[in-house]
Specification:
The complex is a heterodimer of chains A (417) and B (406).
Chain A: H1 2-11, E1 24-28, H2 33-43, E2 47-52, H3 76-81, E3 85-89, H4 95-107, E4 110-113, H5 117-122, H6 127-133, E5 138-143, H7 158-163, H8 167-171, H9 186-204, H10 206-209, E6 213-218, H11 219-239, E7 256-261, E8 264-269, H12 273-282, H13 297-302, H14 304-315, H15 320-329, E9 335-336, H16 340-344, H17 347-351, E10 355-360, E11 364-369, H18 393-400, H19 405-413
Parallel strand pairs in A: 1-2, 1-4, 2-3, 4-5, 5-6
Antiparallel strand pairs in A: 7-8, 8-9, 10-11
Chain B: E1 11-14, H1 20-30, E2 34-39, H2 64-70, E3 74-77, H3 83-94, E4 98-101, H4 107-110, H5 115-121, E5 126-129, H6 146-149, H7 174-196, E6 200-203, H8 206-211, H9 215-224, E7 243-247, E8 254-258, H10 262-271, H11 281-284, H12 286-291, H13 293-304, H14 309-318, E9 322-325, H15 329-334, H16 336-341, E10 344-348, E11 354-358, E12 363-364, H17 381-388, H18 393-401
Parallel strand pairs in B: 1-2, 1-4, 2-3, 4-5, 5-6
Antiparallel strand pairs in B: 7-8, 8-9, 10-11
Helix pairs in contact in B: 1-7
The chains are: A alpha/beta (417), B alpha/beta (406).
């Protein structure tokens, strides 16, 4: 135990370094949700140790890899979601590994994990068991369905969670065709952020409320409640009816959808009078726009096909940036639909220092997304690269838990670390 | 379980409006903060006018979607066009820890409530600003709607059917996400204040926060120069197959199936009755399944279409396969999982009607929050002006009569 005290004192950061300085976190997660949640802690100054099984976080196998050559130290997904963390390996399924994990757990304020509940139980790592060891522990569990309820025992991934929320049926896709997700791990990110917020509050108020607790995040529930439920559940409950996706941005008003232009797409939005007038002015006040059938957003929606054929004729001749800049200047909220490349090269984001270059031992110098929000008094964001597999085994198990080199070698020999 | 919630004693003045700002307040309220949302009948928030209304009777205190998205916020009515009202707001801020706003850059200064002014009344105040694209930079004044903000992050460019153009997500996914994320930023700033005694002005660009979701595709661009596009429901990193939603029996019924491991693929094959098509080289290994993913998905769709979504999900789960029904809005209220977790709750509104809203969307074992109905305009005026500021009844009545408190 003396080792723990010495380590935690040496790791304590000077006040003002990071907003979450002094908070000790174990990240026992893989892929996106728990690792991104833990990254929010590490990027804002908490001391985060990532515990991986000896084979590594599955994200290490997922890529994207440079040149598509699989390499466990070169996964882009692992790189981006594990910055500023130290990394150790530990096989919690064997007694010696579980004991190591318990040592880390006594050190930690927070445990963040996204293993399916049955897996945590099989490892004897349920909240009830961990709480007995560290009553002050805040355990943030982020899973597709959560720790309770009939689906809590189900196997599931981001895709399953997302489509359980009503989002895709209601808001994404063409009627009669399959409902869609965003093309990224939307449910995982949403759950990660909800977990970080509620979990951080549990840490902040831990003394006030008398100890730690389990923060049970269901990625599906967080979205079903706050996004879909917020806007739709009142109608369902009171009137027993509900709406579905239309494939159009806003079916009742127009223009409000994504339309093609010369070099891609723009989000075409001109609903209010002033916005529509602004768009018409930019288009050169064409004759068709003055027709009775286009006089307000509602009749425009009824005549949307005709209107869009006129608008598309105009957008086809102009680039997305040209359309965005001129329309914005005319008071109209039209934006370019940026490709990933355009988003990544935006002068606006560069001017705000959103992107950060990080030196990685295997990937070299790689650009990364920076802090999600700016705290001028205690800036956050990625500084140190994601750890290599087991990179900090000696440092953490040696200095933090007081293991000797011989003990470490023995654990390594048995494949525990 | 503890009656004391983790943020007890923290007071938040919420000038946020529409959706994202109010969700910041709601989240902090669920966690125990006292949140006073300042609004006015002088300029009614658009979301208070959205149908459906409680019992079908229109009114600014009866919008069901507004109530669900705002519940937890208190409401204090001040017409900030009036200098006296702004003075009262500043006095409330002097008794507070956090101010939340989601106007455009410069709006707080125009109200004479910029960060410097707030610091004068409360030196360690945390001002949390969440404009669309941040407080500075070339796009600082960009106009977006919630549902189009994502176009600036690259996210919209990834949504759609394989090989087609982008399909709009038909509501502002970024609003509640940024609202919850914003509450995390506030907590980080509160923690810094506890460590150092220092407040600050948080610059929360919704664009930058939401763009974090694009990380995987961003890395493919950084590492390979590849620019992703719509690909239906396929795995974001092409690392699992099958990975999609498939049609089921009935009108617009679907099931999501994601297969990442060999064991799951074996489970799926066995659940399908080991069909001949699945035995060959074309689908045996993940690499082959990815190469033949269109054919793979077509085969599976033929099979799923003969089954009920819920029955099939149970059956696939018995085989260890990650599968779940694709729910529509109507399903949310009756789904056994959400019912068991108490995701949606019916509450009694002080104005005399019942309404169904969502409750704690994260479950806390020690400190489950108290779920309150959506606020009616000015419901916390007595508390704010009489208890917090100590105004006399007479002064209070005068301010109401002159529509300063309005």
């Amino acid at each position: 135990m003396t080792g723990v005290v010495a380590e935690s004192a040496s790791q304590a950061r000077a006040p003002g370094v990071g907003a979450l300085a002094g908070i000790k976190v174990l990240d026992f997660g893989q892929m996106v949700s728990a690792p991104y949640c833990a990254k929010l802690f590490s990027d804002y100054g908490a001391d985060v140790i990532k515990v991986e099984p000896p084979g590594g976080d599955v994200a290490r196998q997922m890529g994207p890899f440079p040149g598509d050559v699989v390499h466990p130290e070169k996964s882009g997904l692992y790189f981006i979601n594990n910055t500023n963390k130290r990394g150790v390996t530990c096989d919690v399924s064997v007694a010696a590994g579980r004991e190591l994990f318990m040592g880390l757990l006594r050190w930690a304020d927070v445990l963040i994990e996204n293993n399916l509940p049955q897996k945590m139980r099989a490892w004897n790592l349920s909240y009830a068991q961990l709480q007995a060891i560290n009553p002050n522990l805040v355990m943030i569990s982020i899973t597709p369905f959560g720790q309770t309820g009939p689906y809590s025992g189900w196997n599931g991934y981001d895709l399953n969670a997302f489509h359980l929320t009503g989002t895709s049926s209601r808001y994404c896709g063409r009627p009669g065709e399959m409902p869609l997700e965003h093309g990224t791990f939307s449910a995982d990110y949403y759950g990660a952020i909800a977990g970080a917020t509620w979990g951080m509050a549990a840490v902040y108020g831990r003394d006030l409320v008398g100890g730690g607790q389990l923060v049970d995040v269901s990625c599906a529930e967080a979205i079903a409640a706050t996004f879909v439920g917020g806007q739709n559940i009142g109608l369902v409950a009171q009137e027993g009816r509900f709406d579905k996706r239309t494939g159009v941005g806003m079916p009742l008003g127009a223009p409000a959808t994504i339309v093609p232009c010369k070099d891609g797409h723009v989000w075409m939005l001109a609903l209010e009078r002033g916005q529509w007038d602004g768009l018409c002015k930019v288009m050169g006040d064409p004759e068709w726009a003055s027709l009775e059938m286009f006089q307000d957003m509602f009749v425009r929606a009824q005549n949307a096909d005709i209107m869009y054929s006129f608008i598309n004729e105009w957008t086809a001749q102009h680039t997305k940036m040209e359309i965005m800049e001129k329309c914005q200047a005319a008071g109209c909220p039209i934006t370019a639909v940026f490709t990933i490349a355009e988003a990544a090269e935006q002068p606006h984001l560069k001017a705000r220092d959103y992107f950060v270059d990080i030196e990685h031992p295997d990937l070299g110098r790689v650009r990364n997304l920076g802090a999600p929000f700016k705290l001028p008094a205690c800036p956050g964001g990625p500084v140190r690269p994601a750890p290599r597999l087991g990179q900090h085994n000696a440092e953490v198990y040696g200095r933090l838990l007081g293991l000797s080199n011989a003990e470490l070698a023995a654990l390594k020999g048995k494949g525990v670390i | 379980m503890s009656k004391t919630l983790p943020l007890k004693g923290i007071r938040v003045i919420n000038l946020g409006w529409v959706w994202a700002g109010p969700v910041v307040g709601q989240t902090l309220a669920f966690l125990g903060a006292e949140v006073l949302k300042i609004e006015s009948r002088q300029r009614l928030d658009m979301t208070r006018t959205l149908p459906p209304f409680a019992e079908g009777k229109p009114g600014p205190d009866r919008s069901l979607s507004n109530h669900a998205c705002w519940a937890g916020n208190g409401s204090v009515s001040l017409n900030l066009k009036e200098p006296e009202a702004r003075e009262l707001a500043l006095r409330l801020i002097a008794h507070s820890d956090v101010v939340v706003e989601n106007f455009g850059p410069g709006a707080m200064e125009r109200l004479d409530m910029g960060y410097d002014r707030l610091k004068q009344v409360k030196p360690d105040i945390i001002l949390f600003s969440m404009p669309a694209a941040g407080l500075t930079g070339p796009l600082e004044h960009v106009r977006t709607y919630g549902l189009s903000l994502t176009s600036l992050t690259g996210l919209d460019s990834l949504v759609g059917y394989k090989g087609g153009g982008p399909i709009p997500v038909e509501n502002a996914f970024s609003d509640p996400l940024a609202g919850i994320f914003g509450a995390f930023a506030v907590l980080a700033a509160l923690n810094h204040r506890r460590n150092t005694g220092q407040g600050q002005h948080v610059d929360f660009s919704q664009q930058e926060a939401v763009m974090q979701m694009v990380g995987p595709a961003y890395m493919d661009y950084v590492l390979n120069g590849r620019v992703g596009g719509p690909k239906g429901n396929e795995h974001p990193l092409n690392a699992a197959a099958p990975h999609s939603v498939f049609p089921c029996r009935g009108d617009d019924r679907w099931i999501s199936i994601a297969v990442q491991t060999d064991a799951e693929w074996e489970g799926l094959k066995s659940a399908m009755g080991d069909p001949a098509w699945a035995q060959g080289q074309a689908f045996s290994m993940l690499k082959a399944r990815l190469a033949n993913i269109d054919a793979l998905h077509a085969h599976i769709a033929e099979w799923t279409a003969q089954h009920d979504d819920r029955v099939l999900a149970e059956e696939l789960q018995r085989h260890g396969v990650a599968a779940a029904p694709v729910l529509n809005c109507g399903d949310l209220l009756t789904d056994p999982h959400y019912k068991a977790r108490g995701t949606f709750v019916e509450v009694q509104h002080p104005l005399g009607f019942r309404e169904t809203i969502y409750g704690a969307y994260v479950k806390m074992s020690r400190t489950p929050p108290e779920v309150r109905p959506g606020p009616y305009i000015g419901q916390d005026n007595d508390h704010a002006f009489k208890e917090v500021l100590g105004l006399s009844d007479e002064r209070y009545r005068d301010l109401v009569e002159r529509k300063i408190i309005y």
